[in-house]
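Quick one: structure tokens for this chain, please?
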Amino acid sequence: MPAKYMPPAPFDLGRSIHRSPIAEYFATTTLFSKLMPRLSTPNQVDRDHAMGIFAGVPSIARDPRLTFTFAHVLMPHLGYKIDASCAPLVRSMGQSSLAGELDCLNKRTLTMVHSLLSTSSVPPIIIIQGDHGSQSLKQFVNDRAIPNTAQARERFRPFGAYYLPDGGDAVVPDSTSIVNVLRYVFSYYFNADLKPIPNTMYYSHWRYPYRTTEVDANFHVVLKPTHNPAR
């Protein structure tokens, strides 16, 4: 049975405001803004949400039913929110904040995985997957430029770590795109008829998500020939 895991949380006015763009806009542009310093900050809200996921996901292992659970932690990400001790930051300090956030996330992720392995009645399938690679090479400085090979390679090589028991580790090839990971897993463990699809990659600037540029398997931009009608 599919499930998106949402950690239980008591009512918190700051959380209710910061998790809704409309409520946040109202609260910060009206007299209500006078109360905002007394409430939870956005970094506190996001920190509590992420830590609740790390702490709560292992409880699913005690469920006797077969479950597919998806948990999303939007960290690490620009606008770093926590330090190495997992405390919310007052303000982000660039690369030093990234190092601290990664330190916290690595420890919490390992703790979660060890808990899943120790409490599951059957060996669980664990997929830890980034949605894209980093952007230290500044792919998005110019919204009109296309990425060079190094920039494309960085962006299209997201982190991925898989625990695939009973021989499943041999199913996923050494090189694949994330679009095929679940297809390999479902085919192997559940006999799903899901053939791999082409590992086609497309780049777009976040300002123009539908203006895509194809990138080939060697991380080279595929330049489409221009149409020159015969004279």
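Residues 80 and 92 are 6 Å apart (CA to CA).
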